[in-house]
Amino acid sequence: MNLFFIENSWSFEKVNKSDPYHFMVVGHAYGNPEEYNLGLYPKFLYLLNENRHPGVEFIVFTGDIVRKSDKILWDKVEEQIKSTGLTQYYLLGNHDESAYARKLLTEKFGGTYYSFKKQKDVFVVFDTQKELGVIPKEQIEFLEKTIEENPKAKNFFLFVHELLWTAKNDKYKNVHPNRGYDFDSNFWTEFHPILKKNKGKKFYVVAGDVGANEASSPFFRERTDNVTILASGMGGNKDENYLLFAVNGDNVDVFFVLLNSGKILSAMEDLVNK
Fold this sequence. Notes:
Blueprint: E1 4-7, H1 12-15, E2 21-26, H2 42-50, E3 56-61, H3 71-82, E4 87-90, H4 99-109, E5 114-118, E6 121-125, H5 137-148, E7 155-159, H6 187-197, E8 202-207, E9 219-224, E10 227-232, E11 241-248, E12 251-258, E13 264-266
Parallel strand pairs: 2-3, 3-4, 6-7, 7-8, 8-10
Antiparallel strand pairs: 1-13, 2-11, 5-6, 9-10, 11-12, 12-13
């Protein structure tokens, strides 16, 4: 996958300093499966504490936030993020699944799937652990209602853990999530059609189940119709990364930031419909 190299710099402000707001999306944030850190991946935590992206207002974590889903590790993550002063939003990954995590998300966000807004833009977080690999009927209906209730919104950011579009799909046989998918997904049959029919809107679907090791893909990007599909994650791949979004009205720029080299790569440059 060819990506457009922006510059070898950590300063996101140099890339796009006039945008009204920036946010970060982080997949597989607990890091390397072979290590034993409590809380967030030390490499990523170091960057947060260094405040390398001063324009970022909030972080969306796209699952596998903790190594083991118990109170001790979630408390550690909460403590680490609080020290940065950033607002955080959580999404359940397979490592996060537990009664404790479901209670935590319900207390913080009103449920394990939910929405929030930034200016006129809409963000929707989905729970794909309830029925593994599937966006359940009530969440499909929630998406439809959210779109209907926000007629003036142009940008919709939708977050899932797994790369649902790749499940049992030969088109994506060269895309390697952190684990094999043996489930059937309703991404193309029920989810994507909702987005496609809302032609006046732009949808960004982001997953986080990549980047944990050298066998997994470090990132993914594709555009189909009015839908941009992305995946990003960290933990062990040499190109492990996270995403930075720069939003300026209807315009959205997206960048992969590589943890090990510091390179900033455009996810949108030369991206054409497939």
